[in-house]
Amino acid sequence: MTRLNLVLLLAVLASALYLVRIQYESRSLFVEVDRAVALSQKLEIENERLQVEKRAQATPLRVEKLAKEQLQMRTSSPAITQYVTVAPLASAAGATP
User: Fold this and answer.
1) Are 68 and 74 contacting, i.e. CB atoms less than 8 angstroms apart?
2) Cα 24 to Cα 33: distance, rounded to the nearest angstrom
């Protein structure tokens, strides 16, 4: 009878230790999930901020300003427009019936 009680006591202790270990792992996994959710929300907020910044950088007024200042480009007008004419090729004209 004493052996049976000793075996049962060891089984109860082993199951209790196993239960404590499983609870610890569960809590650590829960903390990891919570951190991952927080990181996901942080990345979503940063993505939205970057999208807004991208739209602000690509406004037509800003692009035109950069083109004028940094690239020394100017808007086209009929006064500075040059028209180029292309003469038809003689071989291409003779090849068509």
Assistant:
1) yes
2) 14
| The one-letter amino acid at 73 | M
pLDDT digits 0-9 by tens, 18-72: 999 999 999 999 999 999 999 999 999 999 999 999 998 888 888 888 888 998 8
Q: Annotate the chain with three-state secondary structure.
A: CHHHHHHHHHHHHHHHHHHHHHHHHHHHHHHHHHHHHHHHHHHHHHHHHHHHHHHHHCCHHHHHHHHHHCCCCCCCCCCCCCCCCCCCCHHHHHHCC
Report how far Cα 42 is from the mean position of its chain's Cα atoms. Answer: 12
Using CA atoms, how far apart are residues 1 and 14, in angstroms rounded to an integer? 20
pTM: 0.53
